[in-house]
Amino acid sequence: MPQTKQQSKVHNDSSLPVVEVLVVITITTALLLGVIISTNPLGKLLGATTTQQPSTPPVPQLSNAKEVIPGGMPFATAMNEFPQVIGGYIAPYHAPQVGDPYYIEVSIRDRVAPVTKVIAKIEGQIAQEIPLTLIDGTQQDGTWGALWNYTGTRSVKIISYDEKNNTTEVGVQ
Questions:
Q1: Planar angle of CA 136, 120, 96, nearest 5 degrees
Q2: What is the pTM (predicted TM-score) of this model?
Q3: End-to-end CA distance of the chain
Q4: 152-170, pLDDT tens digit by residue?
Q5: Where in the sequence is the domain holding 72, given as residue range(s)?
Q6: Beta pairing class for 153-162 and 133-137
Q7: Contact (CB, 8 A) for 60 and 70
Q8: Which CATH number characterizes residue 72's domain?
Q9: φ and ψ at 60, to 5 degrees?
Q10: Cα–Cα nearest to 150, from 122, 173, 169, 170
């Protein structure tokens, strides 16, 4: 009986991952080239665009207003009565525009009783009473602050009250 040589084809399954790897490499290369072209001056000349968002200024909040609102000015007072307004900070101090954020903070000490309420009495085109919030310290030695939109204010008076019904008023111009 003559011997016949059988040839068998073995299917190699390892070729499938090679194709998948080539596809991944091709896609990665295309993405990298897109980034390089869009950030390269030559790519911009060829019409490639980037999707950079314009930076927006931070929104003033009570926690960051002192840093965010430019043109602030500290102020000091000399009082012997309690609650004692020691000093504070107002921003912007010069030439705010109607609708701009307006910030005030005051340091108040009271050796007689805890401070229960602090308001900023606004006199101007629109009269307002803005409540201040304790933002640092205690009711007997703390910093109170408020943030509102400027309404054409002519003057600001800080009025503070304590538990023993003592009241002080300080004008801030």
A1: 100
A2: 0.62
A3: 120
A4: 877 889 999 999 999 999 9
A5: 65-172
A6: unpaired
A7: no
A8: 2.60.40.10
A9: -65, 135
A10: 122
